[in-house]
Amino acid sequence: MRVVSGIQPTGNLHLGNYLGAIKQWVAMQDAVAAEGGECLFFLADLHALTQPVVPAELAANTIEMAATLIACGIDPAKAILFNQARVPAHSELAWILGGTARMGWLNRMTQWKDKAGKNREGASVGLFTYPVLQAADVLVYQATHVPVGEDQKQHLELARDIATKFNTDYATEIFPLPEPLVSKAAPRIMSLRDGAAKMSKSDPSDASRINLIDDDDLIAQKIKKAKTDPAPLPDTLDALEGRPEARNLVTIYAALADESPDAVVARFAGQGFGAFKPALADLAVAVLAPVRARLMALREDREAVAAALVDGAARADAIARPVLRAAQLALGLQI
């Protein structure tokens, strides 16, 4: 089993990133290693180039993101952690697969339509073709499984289509078809100010999210001010239908406590948010304070973080290079 996943280096991460993705990565890292497989987690700095970047910020954010992943529990000794640009096989295979992917396939990508909007003529070529790079990201490691959310399922289907067509066109079996790895434990964390909107760094209100670098008092303050309703918690999760902010806080509690949302509402049934919010704040502080402490220590030792990325890239390259070579030979490229 070989699991591959990436995350763009966008700077400070928040609770939604941690509970929705990174916590699952940590669990995968341990489970897959126990079974003799391996996990590769990368900082998708090449994908960041689909939009205008400030070079100094991109470089700093890459180290910051790596430090955050390590602080959250990603262990470079168990998993391969690296930044994408250090492994040239990603870019080289993406160009090769660009000859296999079809324009019609890319035109159907809903994220392209959403991100480009009405200004498709002004969007970068990279924004249009980045699903091909995503395909290369996983196929270059002959990934067996890829963690995906709802918004990325279509891109994994594209990677499978590209792999199938390449294998068929060139009578080879270089690329296995990666399977989606959907964690049922991965919750969708919403804004603290709007239960219908996903928690996001781009939200102009800092009160809408809990950043992993927030101190204990700020975490408690944000939870205290989180939008709710006056009704007490019911005794079943289904009874929270139509109460998105209440459901979101229950979801956050359950994810932090490694419990089911049903168990949480059963325990707090009949209590108002005057009682539930302090309990949630105490739990959030207990879970996030050690992460923040490790992150602050790693921020003071950026050379060690950079060294971990260099080591991870060397290990990743050792896997990717033979796969790229096989694809080149299948095409008749004499390199």
The pLDDT mean sits at 93
End-to-end distance? 30 Å
Identify low-pLDDT runs. none
Strand order of the biggest β-sheet: 1-2-3
Structural class of the helices, strands and pairings? mainly alpha
* Shape, principal axes of CA atoms: globular
In N-to-C order, the SSE pattern is EHEHEHHHHEHEHHHHH
Number of helices: 12
Biggest sheet architecture: 3 strands, parallel
Helix content: 40-55%
Rg, alpha carbons: 21 Å
Strand content: 5-15%
Strand elements, count: 5
Give a description of the structure:
By secondary structure, the chain is mainly α. It contains twelve helices and five strands. The chain has helices at 15-34, 55-72, 89-98, 103-107, 110-116, 125-139, 153-169, 216-224, 244-257, 261-268, 273-299, 302-331; strands spanning 2-7, 38-43, 80-83, 145-147, 179-181. Strand 2, helix 2 and strand 3 form a beta-alpha-beta unit. The chain is globular. The mean pLDDT is 93.
